[in-house]
Amino acid sequence: MDILLFALSVAVPFLHHRYRSGVKRSPSSMMTTTTTSSTSLQEQLEQGTSLNAKERVCTVTSNNVPIIGGHDRATMRLCKLWHRATYCLIRHEPTPISDHPSSHPKDDEIYVLVQKRSSFKDYCPSKLDPTSGGVVGYGEDCYTNISRELEEEMGIIITTGGLSNLKHLFTFPYQDEQVRVWGYFYEYTYKGSIRELQLQEEEVETVLRMNLQELQHLMKTQSSTFMSDSIHAMNLYFQFQHDLKVQRRFLKGSSSDLEAFAIRPKIQAIFFDCDDCLYFDNWKTAQKLTKKIDEWCVNHGLQTGQAYGLYKQYGTALRGLLVEGYLENSDQAIRQYLEDVHDIGIETLIEPDVKLQEMFSRLDPTIPKYIFTASVSQHAQKCIKALGIEDYFTSNPIIDCVSCDLETKHSPHSFQRAMEIANIIGNQYPPQSCLFFDDSITNIQAARQVGWRACLVGKVGRDCRTTISSDDAELELDSIHDMEKVFPELFIKKETTD
User: Does domain 8-246 have CATH number 3.90.79.10?
Assistant: First the structure.
């Protein structure tokens, strides 16, 4: 191992000794004193004697719009102004790796370079920093900045031949009591020897090499020894890597937007569509329902096929019947219609799904789960009973068309009602804390409009019988059984024995 997981007070001196020897340093001509406390740092900032105090930096608005003229570094620090900075994770791969997927390293085989910041720094002196980089100068672009910072801090020169190794992954906002920053996150693969690095003394005290899993462990258990903004940046990096692995879309205007990447809020409620989502029977049940509705309409004076036309125009045949005056707008008449058209003997159409049952048994029981259907609760109840998963929905009501004031899931109103029923609005959780699975592109689009995280289930359309896709879905699954693969954090982890 290249790092020992002792308490950091033991580990850092060990690593300092191991990797400091033999590392060349650039001569120090900028600082002769050391910043050792927040009090002395504050005094230096106020007096304009801190490192690079008069340097003009790129300050920005909270929306990352540059401010004309920028500000000097000392003012930016004292007033905690929004500014731009670069962050670069340096992967260390001293030996070539084959392009074959089987040779790609796992997290416990990926090694990165972690800096111990100089005590001269005006921000987080002597802290561990898993990313290289720095504050962007006024009029400087971020790529130029990170290229310059890598060369100045560590002697890594980004040449024309090595441009492909330096990749911009995402941009993110971050603020805490010390800093407000728009960060530009890069990844670079360094193939040289650690002893070839040339550290700038006023920037970097030493460099540690550790694998990615060990770094993640230390950031969790010894967070006070790391820069808080770099911890946040690395957590975003881990989220980004998982998103790539499961092919999650980086949707504009959401926390998955790579121009404003953010840690997604914890899921507070999961909503499952019922028909053609929790089960798939090649649309046999859907066809039965369609035929039953058409029969009801014909028996009440409409033409054959007219029910489907009402469905296409109004979202459901029921709304069309009400709007066109074919059905009395009363609770009794509506309830009788719904009972009649859903009497299709669902028990003979849907079989128990053992794989689905096992998946639900592993789903975190503390996360509320709801059936969210455009049908009626009685029909949905019969479906989940036939599948053998009814026990996982006993604590919460089924959200059906009646619950949503007869609105379809094409309408944002139904999603607002679902949030009210699930107490998302009452508890002031953000809409992004709602996770939704559905087979309808239109429903997915409506969910996205209200800020839900939505996943398309099934990649073939019922009406077109061809491949479908939705730009509003963060994920597209072949079936609901794939849920655990893409959302492992929502499931109880299996206990392992040594």
Answer: yes
